[in-house]
């Protein structure tokens, strides 16, 4: 077996050149803008940087800067708090959604400043992340702002992003779990570190292009909590990714697209004649851009060859590059013939992946699991937990569920035992489970490794083979036949064959 090939330590931690000496330039620039009330300069530790933009011919501001917006449906402004003039910091990514959100807030009469977050290793990792589109994103963001003379600032949060998101993700994958970087990015960076960075600048709210709706209490009832509601577009809805926010964060947020279906957002982009109106939506993880996730994992965790064993028989099926490349329920990437094959369990200690063609068998489905790291958006446990709804992944699908709270007696905190109304086989430790009461998202937590069904039933022989220190004794992978119509014989029923005899009928060596 090949040994562990780890990247050099120096490559795991980039050096970010913070240009704090230019902070006075930004302060003077901000003070030069017309504001409804005085603006405090940024604190010395704030990493806001002035940015020089190159003029690109295909991104020149539209000649229709003073487009008549009378035809915009007034209902589309209902999520923009149009009843009063506010100072709003708008997160602008260069994509269509955040650009339309900015224009709607501007149309509603608010005083907006746009902010572009540079959160990845653009400076030091340009050679490796050659396809990272941040310069293109930034140019689009600048062009959108130029149309209506909205200032755009760049905030460097690479340091914070490494400590609070990337390092956590790497450690979770090393432990065999599957974290959700988008939830962490929203909680710890976009509405965490960024809010802290602009705290002294006295913005009333922070806005973004998320598909969600925040209902704030009236001015006479400010002691009441703000509420996170599903968006108008249930397919695009992103409350799942926002479900781990705190009440303090939620109270400062505005989501202009929460009242608008996605297809109407595209129409508004065309109506506003945005420079990026025809740009495709980003499908990648929040920090990777166009980089494949497998490349990111290989770069930061390395590779270590291990074996794939059939869960029901223990047969040696092939090899893999490291258990951290796989998650429970995964189908793509195994490259085994005679499938479909699914990852059903992982032996982290021995770097073994267990696969099965019977993942969706009725007797192997589960509907109960445990959730830790609980956070409730109101700040308090829900009083009624017997008739809730649950999302265990992003998408329009819900499960009806009941939740039992087990109060933590130590530093581990409270744990929720969740019982779904239907079976699901996509439960992956490290992912988030978001809870809803009607259309209101009330909080979320992280799915734990222990659940009532005890996971997929891997046979004793497969477990024994996984513990072999010298995996070369397995011989060559078995020749995989087309899946039989009759159930596979349980390997726990001893048939007199030993490890060598079962491995001798070798086919092509499978390497992932």
Automatic annotation (TrEMBL):
Pfam families the record matches: tRNA_Me_trans, tRNA_Me_trans_C, tRNA_Me_trans_M
Listed GO biological process terms: tRNA processing
Catalytic activity: 5-taurinomethyluridine(34) in tRNA + S-sulfanyl-L-cysteinyl-[protein] + AH2 + ATP = 5-taurinomethyl-2-thiouridine(34) in tRNA + L-cysteinyl-[protein] + A + AMP + diphosphate + H(+)
GO molecular function annotations of the record: ATP binding; tRNA binding; tRNA-5-taurinomethyluridine 2-sulfurtransferase
Enzyme Commission no: 2.8.1.14
Ranges for domain tRNA-specific 2-thiouridylase MnmA-like central: 295-356
Top EC class, one word: transferase
Cross-referenced InterPro entries: MnmA-like (IPR004506), MnmA-like_C (IPR046885), MnmA-like_central (IPR046884), MnmA-like_central_sf (IPR023382), Rossmann-like_a/b/a_fold (IPR014729), tRNA_2-thiouridylase_MnmA (IPR051305)
Family as reported in the entry's similarity comment: Belongs to the MnmA/TRMU family.
Name the record gives this protein: tRNA-5-taurinomethyluridine 2-sulfurtransferase
């Amino acid at each position: 077996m090949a040994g562990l090939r780890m990247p050099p330590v120096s490559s795991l931690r980039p050096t970010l050149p913070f240009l704090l000496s230019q902070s006075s330039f930004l302060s003077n620039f901000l003070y030069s803008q017309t504001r409804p009330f005085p603006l405090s300069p940024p604190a010395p530790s704030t990493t806001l940087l002035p940015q020089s933009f190159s003029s690109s011919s295909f991104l020149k501001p539209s000649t229709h800067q003073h487009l008549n917006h009378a035809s915009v449906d007034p209902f589309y402004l209902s999520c923009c708090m149009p009843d009063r003039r506010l100072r709003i910091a708008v997160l602008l990514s260069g994509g269509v959604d955040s650009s339309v959100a900015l224009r709607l807030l501007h149309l509603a009469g608010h005083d907006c400043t746009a902010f572009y977050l540079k959160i990845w290793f653009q400076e030091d990792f340009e050679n490796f992340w050659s396809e990272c589109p941040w310069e293109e994103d930034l140019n689009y963001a600048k062009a959108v702002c130029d149309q209506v003379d909205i200032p755009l600032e760049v905030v460097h949060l690479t340091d914070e992003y490494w400590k609070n998101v990337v390092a956590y993700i790497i450690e979770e994958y090393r432990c065999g779990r599957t974290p959700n970087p988008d939830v962490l990015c929203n909680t710890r960076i976009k509405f965490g570190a960024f809010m802290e960075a602009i705290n002294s600048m006295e913005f009333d709210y922070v806005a973004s292009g998320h598909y969600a709706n925040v209902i704030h209490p009236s001015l006479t009832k400010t002691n009441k909590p703000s509420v996170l509601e599903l968006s108008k577009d249930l397919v695009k809805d992103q409350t799942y990714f926002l479900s781990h926010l705190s009440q303090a964060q939620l109270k400062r947020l505005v989501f202009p697209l929460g009242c608008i279906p996605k297809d109407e957002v595209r129409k508004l982009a065309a109506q506003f004649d945005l420079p990026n109106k025809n740009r495709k939506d980003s499908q990648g993880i929040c920090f990777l851009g166009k980089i494949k996730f497998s490349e990111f994992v290989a770069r930061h965790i390395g590779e270590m060859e291990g074996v794939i064993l059939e869960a029901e028989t223990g047969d040696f099926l092939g090899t893999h590059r490291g258990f951290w490349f796989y998650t429970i329920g995964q189908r793509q990437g195994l490259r085994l013939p005679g499938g479909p094959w699914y990852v059903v369990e992982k032996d982290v200690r021995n770097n073994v992946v267990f696969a099965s063609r019977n993942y969706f068998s009725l007797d192997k489905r589960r509907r109960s699991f445990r959730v830790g790291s609980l956070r409730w958006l109101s700040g308090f446990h829900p009083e009624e937990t017997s008739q809730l709804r649950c999302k265990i992944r992003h998408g329009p699908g819900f499960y009806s569920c009941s939740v039992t709270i087990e109060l933590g007696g130590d530093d581990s905190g409270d744990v929720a035992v969740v019982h779904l109304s239907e079976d699901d086989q996509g439960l992956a430790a490290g992912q988030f489970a978001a809870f809803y009461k009607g259309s209101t998202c009330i909080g979320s937590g992280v799915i734990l490794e222990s659940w009532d069904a005890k996971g997929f039933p891997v046979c004793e022989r497969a477990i024994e083979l996984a513990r072999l220190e010298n995996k070369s004794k397995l011989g060559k992978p078995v020749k995989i036949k087309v899946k039989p119509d009759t159930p596979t014989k349980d390997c726990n029923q001893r048939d007199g064959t030993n490890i060598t005899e079962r491995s001798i009928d070798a086919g092509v060596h499978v390497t992932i």
